[in-house]
């Protein structure tokens, strides 16, 4: 059809219909490339480990209909929940406050360094931005020293352990919350600052003339206008902190406070070999919160990473 | 009663590299109670900075600003009893019109909620925006946002209004309507108003008086007609009026001004004004130049010229004239003639520069040494 | 007629609060009125947190790298020397150990190889994907979502998936190779393939990020540029090569910086892939070496020294970037 090219705009590399078929084939092929490791994981995670052969890891378990595909079973997921349960709980205890704190403090910092305009703030801000790019190895040893030998957090935490739902090992999670808050601040500040730079200066001045103090301007003008950015920042921070292993490894190290990424590293390996169904189920279970967030708020996630 | 006084107000900005820039230099104006003063000048002339100093959004380097006789230099913006309307309107986008108008009362008074509501509604009625009260700014047209911005300023019952190019975001037609509307409201409320614009037409049509700023220095304060007919200097003469005044730099030869293309005889009073100078800038407004068909020169104020370009404007035409088209760098000037007059490029015509309409300026300083004949009493009577 | 403003004024006059606080405009006023000070409650606490945890820790780490700290008791700050750096560059037996410690060249080399191959392939793939997605295709959102999906995963999860994909007997990669008559090949523990396998898995995870950045860059180019090139008679490929890609410089630089820093942080991936601190010499990067020295071998000060080297590498990449951003007023 000659009209086929009509709706293809100026940007198009692929004017003809044959070219467009190739285009879509490539796009779908790349989609398969990104999805197959996950798809294989899902299929394997619902195979009864006893019937697992590994011959067709990408097929659903259809035994006895299709031989060698394994029998369907939720046993691996049960095993993953048992193995990661404690880690999941710890991760939630860690991620929720750390995400909210870093977002809130990041918004405050960006407000103080952007909306309220003063000389020299750019210098302070550069220190924030540079913090985004620090390889965390450069601070690990001092961090371990700080939380284990300088701050008597463990001792200070003992009396609190008497409270309901508080365990003595939670001090490690508190240390990790503070650490993640501090290291999340640079990116949060950057995201909020980009947003606040777009807000009208005149609006802030109008509020000043209306008699609003700096705190009131933040609370009544800036904060309500930041809600879309909070969604972006919270999603980004949630993903980052949930997925982190390095800080957990060096601050929690081992024990009851271990978070889900730590638990995941060793799961599914035993003397008798690797239990792939269990391992895949565990990987998917650990990834589930971030995957769900991504599937439901993908556009906001994209906005966060592209900033 | 609130008269607003600017007394030697100066603003010096220090740049990051330590350079100092004087944005506003020793500006002094007395604005009477209820007066509408328009602060006009090209962009970067310091007019906005001056307004922001009055508002308290910018510190004052030296000098004093008094409102109703009281020094307000150190007062924070909210306590100055001043309201401001911004170029972008600066409405709070997440609040309804009602909340926008209540905000200032909530933050700067201890009024009860019910009383705030009543005050807001009364003001909305005055501004004819009652039915917009529960809408968000994004649901309003430009003109409606403009009214809300005015309403938000009025509801706080300030002693003085400051307006920073409030009409520049509107399209031309709405701008003309709002211009009249603003004047009416200002007149009804009888409130001291300082209005900043770069548009000299706005300044001429709206102000009780206009203050012209250039490069941070106040050039002239006066009624629009005073500034138009008796400019203090060449800058004011060129800035006010559209199309601009024509200028020729001419040599003084006793009782005559001389330039390559023409000579102009001076009246005795004019001779006196230029006495002792070797050069002056000769100025004449396009509408003062009279054009007639060729047919001999009847006096020394007439010159044979050629039409270069005609810009029709409907009611009148702006025509660009030249003494000699053939030279590379011809002396050209503009004149306005009735739109009904039929002229076209290439026509030979005779231009008259009437001697009572000319302005003479010092070439070096630009100061006016002689202005056209103008009786402000007469002019005022004519306007009224 | 009564002036409505007078009525309002009378009503308001009873309610005006006389406030003494919160001056904005008083240059002669106290230092407390400055904007930097009035906004301090907002920026100062976050700044202190960042200052203490990031910059304080970096400085402390530099000092620690000059000690002989091995984890017992507290570090001895009285005898500072550059021994750890000498060991890091030349190897040998340090004064704090009886064992010979190898220099970092191997892991530094691996770091650079991983960094360059990973970043370059990610950028190239991301650019191609971005151009394809920018062809006014249907289901654009779906494709974009799928391409960026791996980015939402943890390094640890990615490692588990690819450990499975690379498995000799049951991995999909070997099944595919087998179907064309190759293999099975040992990948994960094969010294020749290790680093490539790691890079490949990371490219799978992060090329979607490069696509998103490029796509934003492409969308920022006005359609008139595409049209102008068309009118000039440029072929499609030439148009992209001469007109469009040069305009993606900013996108390339910012994606490159972020990807490079990601690759410096690839520790989580390697730790998870190899189930601990020992990825083996052919996949050892500075990030893993540093953590292994400090946390597995107890050579804390030596680990700090490696961390300083890693930090300087990151600084060398990031400083010009931030400086150019600052110069262009984009901060």
UniProtKB/TrEMBL annotation, chain A:
Localization in the cell: Cell membrane; Membrane
InterPro entries with a match to the protein in the record: MetI-like, MetI-like_sf
Record's keyword terms, sorted: Membrane, Transmembrane, Transmembrane helix, Transport
Signal sequence, start to end: none
Gene Ontology cellular component list: plasma membrane
Domain ABC transmembrane type-1 span(s) in chain numbering: 88-297
Transmembrane feature ranges: 21-47, 92-113, 125-148, 168-192, 221-239, 278-297
Entry annotated with the keyword Transferase: no
Membrane topology classification: Multi-pass membrane protein
Coarse class of the protein's main subcellular location: membrane
Gene Ontology biological-process annotations: transmembrane transport
PROSITE patterns: ABC_TM1
Homology family: Belongs to the binding-protein-dependent transport system permease family.
Protein name: Carbohydrate ABC transporter permease
Protein source organism: Halonotius roseus
UniProtKB/TrEMBL annotation, chain B:
SMART domains (UniProt xref): AAA (SM00382)
UniProt-listed Enzyme Commission number(s): 7.5.2.13
Subcellular location: Cell membrane
InterPro entries given in the database record: AAA+_ATPase (IPR003593), ABC_transporter-like_ATP-bd (IPR003439), ABC_transporter-like_CS (IPR017871), ABC_transpr_MalK-like (IPR015855), ABC_transpr_MalK/UgpC-like (IPR047641), Mo/tungstate-bd_C_term_dom (IPR008995), NA-bd_OB-fold (IPR012340), P-loop_NTPase (IPR027417)
Domain ABC transporter: 4-240
Major localization class: membrane
Keyword entries, A-Z: ATP-binding, Cell membrane, Membrane, Nucleotide-binding, Translocase, Transport
GO cellular component: ATP-binding cassette (ABC) transporter complex, substrate-binding subunit-containing
Membrane topology: Peripheral membrane protein
Lineage: superkingdom: Archaea
Signal peptide residue numbers: none
GO molecular function: ABC-type transporter activity; ATP binding; ATP hydrolysis activity
Catalytic activity as recorded in UniProt: L-arabinose(out) + ATP + H2O = L-arabinose(in) + ADP + phosphate + H(+); D-xylose(out) + ATP + H2O = D-xylose(in) + ADP + phosphate + H(+)
Gene3D superfamilies: 2.40.50.100, Nucleic acid-binding proteins, P-loop containing nucleotide triphosphate hydrolases
GO BP of this protein: carbohydrate transport
Annotated function: Part of the ABC transporter complex XacGHIJK involved in the uptake of xylose and arabinose. Responsible for energy coupling to the transport system.
Family membership noted in the UniProt record: Belongs to the ABC transporter superfamily. Carbohydrate uptake transporter-1 (CUT1) (TC 3.A.1.1) family.
Subunit-level organization: The complex is composed of two ATP-binding proteins (XacJ and XacK), two transmembrane proteins (XacH and XacI) and a solute-binding protein (XacG).
PANTHER family for the chain: MALTODEXTRIN IMPORT ATP-BINDING PROTEIN MSMX (PTHR43875), TREHALOSE IMPORT ATP-BINDING PROTEIN SUGC (PTHR43875:SF15)
Protein name: ABC-type D-xylose/L-arabinose transporter
TrEMBL record, chain C:
Subcellular location: Cell membrane
Protein name, per record: Sugar ABC transporter permease
Record flagged with keyword Cell inner membrane: no
GO process annotations (BP): transmembrane transport
InterPro entries: ABC_transporter_permease, MetI-like, MetI-like_sf
TM segment ranges: 42-63, 112-133, 145-165, 195-218, 239-264, 300-323
Membrane topology reported for the UniProt record: Multi-pass membrane protein
Species name: Halonotius roseus
Gene Ontology cellular component annotations, sorted alphabetically: plasma membrane
């Amino acid at each position: 059809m000659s009209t086929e090219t009509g709706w293809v705009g100026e940007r198009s590399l692929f004017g003809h219909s044959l070219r467009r078929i190739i285009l879509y084939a490539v796009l779908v092929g790349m989609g398969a490339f990104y999805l197959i490791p996950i798809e294989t994981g899902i299929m394997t995670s619902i195979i009864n480990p006893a019937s697992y052969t590994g011959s067709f890891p990408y097929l659903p378990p259809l035994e006895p209909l299709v031989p060698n595909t394994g029998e369907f079973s939720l046993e691996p997921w049960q095993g993953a929940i048992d193995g990661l349960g404690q880690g999941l709980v710890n991760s939630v205890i860690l991620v929720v406050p750390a995400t909210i704190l870093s977002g809130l403090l990041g918004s405050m910092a960006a407000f103080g360094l952007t909306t309220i305009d003063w000389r020299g703030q750019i210098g302070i801000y550069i220190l924030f931005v540079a913090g985004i790019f620090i390889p965390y190895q450069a601070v690990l040893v001092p961090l371990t020293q700080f939380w284990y030998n300088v701050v008597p957090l463990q001792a200070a935490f003992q009396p609190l352990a008497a409270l309901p739902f508080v365990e003595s090992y939670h001090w490690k999670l508190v240390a990790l919350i503070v650490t993640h808050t501090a290291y999340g601040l640079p990116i949060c500040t950057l995201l909020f600052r980009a947003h606040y730079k777009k807000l009208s200066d005149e609006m802030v001045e109008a509020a000043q003339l209306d008699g609003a103090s700096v705190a009131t301007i933040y609370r009544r003008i800036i904060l309500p206008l930041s809600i879309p950015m909070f969604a972006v920042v919270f999603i980004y921070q949630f993903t980052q902190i949930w997925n982190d292993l390095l800080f957990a490894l060096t601050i929690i190290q081992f024990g009851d406070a271990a978070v889900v990424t730590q638990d995941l590293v060793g799961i599914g390996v035993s003397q008798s070999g690797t239990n792939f169904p269990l391992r895949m189920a565990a990987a998917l279970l650990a990834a589930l919160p971030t995957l769900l967030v991504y599937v439901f708020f993908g556009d906001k996630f994209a906005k966060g990473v592209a900033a | 009663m609130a008269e607003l006084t600017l007394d030697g107000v100066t603003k010096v900005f220090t740049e990051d590299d330590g350079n100092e820039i004087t944005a506003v230099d020793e500006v002094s104006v007395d604005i009477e109670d209820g007066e509408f003063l328009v602060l006009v000048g090209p962009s970067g002339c310091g007019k906005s900075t001056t307004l922001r100093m009055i508002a308290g959004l910018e510190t004052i380097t030296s000098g004093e600003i008094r409102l109703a006789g009281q020094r307000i230099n150190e007062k924070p913006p909210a306590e100055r009893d001043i309201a401001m309307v911004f170029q972008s309107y600066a409405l709070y986008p997440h609040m309804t019109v009602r909340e926008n108008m209540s905000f200032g009362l909530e933050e700067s008074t201890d009024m009860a909620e019910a009383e705030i509501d009543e005050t807001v509604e009364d003001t909305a009625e005055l501004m004819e925006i009652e039915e917009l009260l529960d809408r968000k700014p994004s649901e309003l047209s430009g003109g409606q946002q403009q009214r809300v911005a005015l309403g938000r300023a009025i509801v706080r019952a300030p002693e003085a209004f400051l307006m920073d190019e409030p009409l520049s975001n509107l399209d031309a037609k709405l701008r003309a309507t709002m211009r009249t509307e603003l004047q009416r409201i200002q007149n009804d409320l009888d409130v001291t108003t300082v209005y900043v614009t770069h548009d000299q037409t706005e300044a001429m049509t709206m102000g009780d008086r206009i203050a012209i700023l250039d490069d941070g220095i106040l050039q002239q304060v006066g009624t629009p007609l005073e500034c138009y007919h008796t400019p203090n200097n060449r800058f004011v003469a060129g800035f006010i009026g559209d199309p601009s005044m024509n200028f020729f730099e001419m040599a003084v030869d006793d009782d005559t001004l001389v330039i390559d293309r023409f000579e102009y005889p001076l009246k005795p009073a004019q001779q006196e004004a230029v006495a002792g100078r070797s050069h002056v800038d000769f100025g004449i407004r396009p509408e003062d130049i009279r054009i007639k068909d060729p047919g001999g020169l009847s006096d020394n104020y007439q010159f044979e010229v050629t039409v270069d370009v005609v810009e029709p404007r409907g009611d009148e035409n702006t025509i660009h004239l030249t003494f000699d088209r053939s030279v590379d760098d011809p002396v050209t000037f503009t004149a306005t003639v009735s739109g009904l007059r039929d002229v076209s490029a290439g026509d030979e015509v005779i231009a008259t520069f009437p001697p009572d309409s000319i302005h003479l300026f010092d070439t070096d300083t630009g100061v006016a040494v002689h202005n056209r004949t103008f009786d402000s009493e007469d002019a005022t009577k004519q306007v009224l | 007629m009564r002036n409505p403003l007078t009525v309002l004024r009378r009503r308001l006059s009873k309610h005006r609060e006389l406030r003494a606080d919160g001056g904005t405009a008083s240059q002669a006023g106290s230092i407390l009125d400055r904007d930097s000070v009035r906004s301090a409650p907002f920026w100062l606490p976050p700044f202190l947190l960042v200052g203490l945890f990031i910059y304080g820790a970096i400085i402390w780490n530099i000092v620690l790298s000059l000690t002989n700290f091995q984890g017992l008791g507290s570090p001895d700050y009285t005898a500072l020397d550059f021994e750890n750096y000498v060991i890091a560059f030349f190897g040998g037996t340090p004064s704090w150990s009886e064992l010979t410690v190898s220099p970092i060249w191997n892991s530094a080399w691996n770091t650079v190889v991983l960094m360059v191959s990973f970043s370059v392939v990610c950028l190239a793939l991301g650019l191609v994907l971005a151009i394809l997605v920018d062809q006014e295709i249907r289901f654009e959102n779906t494709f974009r979502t799928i391409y960026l999906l791996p980015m939402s995963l943890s390094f640890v999860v990615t490692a588990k998936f690819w450990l499975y994909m690379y498995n000799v007997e049951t991995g999909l990669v070997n099944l595919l190779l087998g179907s064309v008559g190759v293999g099975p090949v040992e990948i994960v523990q094969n010294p020749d393939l290790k680093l490539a396998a790691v890079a490949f898995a990371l490219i799978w995870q992060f090329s979607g990020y490069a696509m998103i950045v490029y796509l934003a860059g492409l969308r920022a180019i006005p359609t008139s540029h595409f049209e102008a090139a068309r009118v000039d008679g440029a072929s499609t490929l030439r148009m992209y090569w001469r007109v469009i890609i040069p305009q993606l410089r900013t996108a390339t630089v910012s994606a490159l910086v972020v990807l490079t820093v990601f690759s410096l942080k690839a520790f989580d991936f390697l730790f998870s892939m190899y189930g601990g601190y020992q990825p083996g010499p052919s996949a050892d990067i500075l990030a893993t070496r540093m953590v292994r020295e400090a946390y597995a071998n107890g050579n804390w000060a030596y680990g700090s020294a490696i961390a300083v080297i890693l930090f300087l590498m990151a600084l060398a990449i990031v400083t010009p970037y931030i400086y150019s951003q600052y110069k262009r007023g984009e901060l």
